[in-house]
What we know:
Elements: H1 2-15, E1 32-33, H2 36-42, E2 64-68, E3 80-86, E4 92-100, E5 106-114, E6 119-122, E7 130-132, E8 139-140, E9 147-153, E10 161-167, E11 175-176, H3 184-189, H4 191-194, E12 196-202, E13 208-214, E14 221-227, E15 234-238, E16 245-246, E17 251-255, E18 261-265, E19 270-274, E20 282-288, E21 294-300, E22 307-313, E23 320-326, E24 337-339, E25 346-350, E26 353-358, E27 363-369, E28 372-377, E29 383-388, E30 392-397, E31 404-408, H5 414-418, E32 430-432, E33 438-442, E34 469-473, E35 480-481, E36 489-496, E37 502-510, E38 516-526, H6 539-542, E39 544-545, H7 548-553
Parallel strand pairs: 1-27, 6-39
Antiparallel strand pairs: 2-38, 3-4, 4-5, 5-6, 5-7, 8-9, 9-10, 10-11, 12-13, 13-14, 14-15, 16-17, 17-18, 18-19, 20-21, 21-22, 22-23, 24-25, 25-26, 26-27, 28-29, 29-30, 30-31, 32-33, 33-34, 34-35, 36-37, 37-38
Amino acid sequence: MLKSILIMMLLLLSASVTFASSVSEDQNSSVTQLSDTHNTQLNNNTQFNNTQLNNTQLNNNIQFKVIQFEDILPKEKGFSVSYTAWSPDGRYLLVTSSKSISFSNNIHRQYLLDTKSHTFGEIDYGVKELNSYSIPEAEWSPSGDKIYFQISRFAGPKDSGNCFIICNPNGTDLKGVGTNYNDISDILENVGNIGFQRNLEWSPDSSKITFEWENPENHSTRVYIASKNGTNASEITSDTYPQPDWYDSDKIFITTDEGNVDIIKESGDLIQTFQPENKNEKYCKFSLSPDRKKIILVSGLPGSFDLQTYISNTDGSELKGNISYYDGSEQRILTKEYWQPNGSLLLVNQKGNLYIVEGKENNKRLLYEGNASEPQWFPDGKKILFVEDKNKLYSIDTDGTNLTFITSFGLTSSYFWDLFYDPLEKVKQFSISSSGDMIVFTSALYPDTGKIIENEPGPSKCQNVAAPLFVVNSNGSNLTQITPTIKGRHDIFREWSPNGEQFIIGSVQFSSDINWEYKDNSLVELNTTNISSNSSSNCSSIWKNIPVKEIMGS
């Protein structure tokens, strides 16, 4: 009984949390701060300011073409693109097109696009219609030779479940992970007996996967390891909310019911345990740095929503607390901490001030003091992009130098972004290209005047606002509008291609504060010779529909 209560507390701890109180900091270096003088000097860069925004005032040195997927894919009534994923090398694009047939059920078709040869084909899974109660958002394995997605059914206690599918990009060698099923129809028919699979993670060498698997009979959760093909699944441990993640290709981190974070071998043998310093606290979540040298540990008292984060080296040394705090009002935890790409520096946003946690001693250094929000690392890990005072984009080097104003943008309603709660939606108001040279962002405008909106509009105003997409060089030059200014339409960035030459966008059209609809996604190609800001001409003649086997064979 006591264990059940503890488990419930830990699950509640991980369900909703937020950042709270301040901490004492190591301020052993200079801190960058905005001043009126500094701001005036920076305002010479390309920006919106408070002027009217139209094509005559914008630079158009960035050439681009917007290609709507509905002009490429076969036209089928009711179907629209719901999800996309780039291959690791950036050549291929997985596209899921979906049609809703009931409140909880959808039909899906998945396509493979070759952006180099401008060919595409529908992936054949051996079924007439890929039917699922949730969208099968197909992703690539890190090696790029496999794709995977999850299909689900929710039809009562005995017929509900979900199962991961792994196959080749052309749909062959399909396997229900950990099962004997190699046919999607059989998997859907027996998904109630399979149970619930969650949190699939690939090993660093892409040779194996680990995942959670909840037994449908007693609802107990276990951690499994399987081959890259989804075969040879074996149980390695049992915990309620393990959240497995690879340390290397032979060892795995998990969260235990006892409130520890353990490193275990594939055999399940314990290698190392991370325990809270306060015996009464429990670890409920963790996050590993990309280079696997550091770990964030989220800790709290059972029955309390007050949490704090610790940081430690993965060898267990230099545990430091007071990294950040959550008080229960945040919907997700680990939203104030940002790992350096491919590194181990940790960026923390605490009440608008930015900090860097660095070195073997994990010292916390004040980087920037102000009203910062939505920080993002540049891909090279040397600079940070952030919003100051709600609608001004800046960048700063990790040593606190080279504070650079980039541009201002119009504020959209927070209600609009709340429509995309799921982190898998990959929706951001602004994002940096993989090269770090370009930034794409959404800016809200008054459609009649073109002026940016400086005060956040409420949900009831969305249908009166236009929110097109723009791109700008990361130094603030060459501000270019990508999508047209249309009343009630809000355009959203979804995903860059790995080479940074293309990205995916989507749109939402508001007709009132409660009525809105998703529009079909589009592919934006940068640095093209033919410029088109709102449509693509002759796309159907440029893109050819051929069998996927031929696409992959080429």
